[in-house]
Design brief:
Helix content of chain A: 25-40%
Shape of chain B: globular
Radius of gyration of chain B: 20 Å
CATH topology of chain B: ABC transporter involved in vitamin B12 uptake, BtuC
Radius of gyration of chain A: 29 Å
Distance between the termini of chain A: 90 Å
CATH architecture of the largest domain in chain A: 3-Layer(aba) Sandwich
Oligomer: heterodimer
Order of helices and strands of chain B: HHHHEHEHHHHHHH
Structural class of chain A: alpha/beta
Distance between the termini of chain B: 60 Å
Order of helices and strands of chain A: HEEEHEHEHEEHEHEHEHEEHEEH
Strand order of the largest sheet of chain A: 4-3-5-6-7-13
Structural class of chain B: mainly alpha
CATH topology of the largest domain in chain A: Rossmann fold
Largest interface: A-B, 38 and 41 residues
CATH architecture of chain B: Orthogonal Bundle
CATH class of chain B: Mainly Alpha
């Protein structure tokens, strides 16, 4: 008995579907034709559908090792994408799909492959640990553009033509913030809370040390590494240790610095941030931050792809190209002559006169 | 190397080490109860994360840190019940269900954080309280007796839990259920109920462990902020021989060496940072290898109880 109703229902459904698919009333147009030498006007049925010139939405996917709210590495790229999305005309013109918290590299590799097979135009592997995975995925999708950061390797030597690479010259901002810290420190002791001794974290730390020592050779710069990008608890302990050793200015990199910033605030020290503007985390303690502005890189990648270049370009963020910016916290007063010294350092780096990684 | 073994450094190591040990103590003692009753709960990390999040959210929204702490404990307790239903009643593979609980706690805390808070912000957490006479002692005063209530609570938990496990009827039942659940059942101990209770205790303590991070020690919440602490806490239970004092020794070794290696780096001693970071783990393993007294694992650990089955 039940199956009879199912059949009736199916038939009714099919009828509804077919009626919706019924062709619209035919369109006609008047056409002049020559029949046996004389022009004749005939009414002709239009059968072809007009071609709509539709703007194609640009689809971007990004795989990140931490959260989009990490106030550091991942957030800087995500916010950059949102800015470009707004510039292009919103979600209808640019689609952003993201996978965050992908600290497990095999999971990230699967995500990259997934996005590529779903036909995304640009797939960003935002983490230096994703390199090997990208090397395997990119050749399988020659029509897709990939991007890898932070790195300068586009795998062109392996014959791969569809991978962009990008890196932040974090040592430039590190140097400049080192100058600032050396000039502003009352105790003459600076503490650097590093995460993992690799990538743009190491570049930043080395630059900071160089900048501080170049400004005041007798300033003490202590460096610790916690061995993790996400160990907030140990980062807080590192900050405690630095301050117990006499530091009044702290700096560091990665999303785990939120722990260190809290300690700096509680113990009345100052913090200098990198990767993102960290003022909101502790307005009374954060003096300045080096901010990564990825929008120029993203724009060029999109334009290159639309021009037919699917990869092979390497980008860096520098002061010169506007990818690195120093943002001060307005609530903390920095004397004008100190700011002038900072600007001079930025200028020197832009002109190439100062090498932020020169060994002291 | 000389200025590493000075008084200020010692005080610093004591201070930081005690703070670092606090969440491990709460979580590992909770897990001691659980494992003593024969259940392996690998989901401690997920419980800690949910406890950290709920404690932070409730503490921030109500302005009452004790409410936050209570909410965190309740969350952990409920997750413990959840684990008990899966592992004790439904008798699932305990290792796997624990990992599942970890991923659940990680995912849910991250999702709820994004929905309710959106970005990292800080809270005025439990403030340090100086203990009257002891806090004035010369060196150890400022290092040991100037911490928040949650830190003191973690250390007080050790003798309390030792008392409960070894000197109360309830503790006897827990140990019996973990050693020989069939025998315990035959004398009228409700094995399932005991395991539910220990998982509730373990869950509540894990929730408090997470809250100790978000509303006392670090005073903020960030996604995945525990970063594997829960798994280290489970390892500490094994290290401590399933005894609260053993767990204390393990937590202290691990935390003090961690604080020590930071000082090694700050003093600029020529040791690669990667080796410094490894030190706590290496020394804990070495200590384990040298510990002659090897306590026996609860016989029924990880084995689901089926009444009437040998």
């Amino acid at each position: 008995m039940k199956s009879k109703f199912v059949w009736i229902g199916l038939v009714l459904m099919l009828a509804a579907v077919f009626s919706a698919c019924a062709p619209a009333a035919p369109q006609t147009v008047e056409v002049t034709r020559i029949v046996e030498g004389t022009p004749v006007v005939q009414v002709v049925e239009v059968t072809a559908a007009p071609v709509k010139e539709e703007a194609k939405v640009f689809r971007v996917a990004i795989v990140m090792p931490s959260s989009i709210t990490d106030a550091a590495f991942s957030q800087s790229m995500y916010e950059g994408l949102k800015v470009i999305q707004a510039e292009m005309g919103g979600e209808s013109m640019m689609e952003i799909a993201y996978s965050e918290g992908m600290f497990n590299v095999p999971d990230a590799a699967a995500a990259l492959r997934d996005y590529a097979s779903q036909g995304y135009d640009l797939v960003i592997a935002h983490g230096s640990q994703y390199g090997t995975s990208l090397q395997q995925v990119a050749p399988d999708f020659p029509e897709t553009s990939f991007a890898w950061g932070t790195s300068l390797d586009t795998f062109q030597k392996d014959g791969i033509e569809n991978v962009f690479a990008y890196q932040a010259e974090a040592q430039e901002g590190g140097y400049v913030l080192g100058v600032l810290a050396a000039l502003m420190s009352q105790s003459g002791v600076l503490g650097v809370c590093g995460p993992v001794e690799a990538g743009d974290a190491k570049l930043y730390v080395d630059g900071f040390k160089a900048g501080a020592l170049a400004t005041k050779p007798d300033v003490k710069v202590a460096v610790t590494y916690t061995g993790s990008f996400s160990d907030v608890s140990l980062m807080a302990a590192a900050a405690e240790t630095h301050m117990a050793a006499g530091a009044d200015f702290l700096t560091g990199s990665s999303q785990s610095v939120v722990g260190a910033i809290g300690v700096a605030k509680d113990k009345k020290g100052y913090w200098l941030g990198t990767q993102w503007d960290q003022t909101s985390l502790a307005p009374e303690a954060v003096m300045a931050s080096q901010v990564y502005d990825w929008t120029g890189v993203i724009k060029d990648m999109i334009e290159s792809r639309q021009a037919g270049v699917l990869g092979g370009k390497a980008y860096t963020l520098t002061f010169k190209n506007g990818g690195l910016v120093i943002k001060y916290n307005d609530k903390i007063e920095v004397p004008a002559d100190v700011k002038a010294a900072v600007d001079a350092a930025i200028d020197g780096i832009q002109k190439g006169e100062i090498d932020p990684l020169a060994v002291q | 190397m000389g200025d590493l073994f000075t008084l200020p450094v010692l005080i610093g190591i004591l201070y930081s080490g005690i703070r670092l040990a606090t969440p491990y103590l709460y979580a590992a003692i909770g897990e001691t109860f659980v494992q003593r009753s024969g259940v392996l709960n690998l989901g401690v990390e997920g419980m800690m994360l949910m406890g950290a999040y709920v404690g932070f959210l409730v503490g921030m929204k109500t302005g009452n840190l004790w409410l936050g702490l209570g909410a965190a404990a309740l969350t952990g307790l409920l997750m413990g019940v959840f684990m008990a239903v899966i592992s004790v009643t439904l008798q699932a593979q305990q290792g796997i269900s624990g990992i599942g609980l970890h991923l659940f706690g990680l995912g849910l805390s991250s999702l709820l954080f994004k929905m309710t808070l959106g970005g990292v912000e800080s809270i005025r957490g439990f403030a340090p309280i100086k203990i009257p006479l002891l806090g004035d002692l010369p060196i150890i005063g400022e290092a040991m007796f100037n911490h928040s209530l949650l830190v003191y609570g973690a250390f007080l938990l050790v003798p309390v839990s030792n008392f409960i496990l070894n000197r109360t009827t309830f503790g006897l039942k827990v140990r019996a259920v973990g050693q020989n659940p069939q025998a315990a059942d035959s004398v009228g101990v409700n094995v399932t109920w005991i395991r539910y209770i220990t998982l509730m205790i373990g869950g509540a303590l894990s929730g408090i462990a997470g809250a100790s991070l978000s509303i006392a020690l670090i005073n903020l919440f960030q996604e995945n902020m525990t970063n594997g602490m829960g798994f280290i806490a489970v390892a500490l239970v094994y290290f401590g021989g399933w005894r609260p004092y053993g767990v204390l020794v393990g937590a202290l070794i691990f935390s003090f060496v961690n604080a020590f290696q930071l000082w090694i780096q700050v003093k600029g001693i020529n040791l690669p940072s990667d080796i410094a970071v490894m030190l706590p783990y290496i020394l804990t393993i070495v200590a384990l290898a040298f510990s002659v007294q090897r306590a026996k694992q609860p016989t029924a650990l990880t084995k689901p109880f089926e009444r009437g089955e040998a």
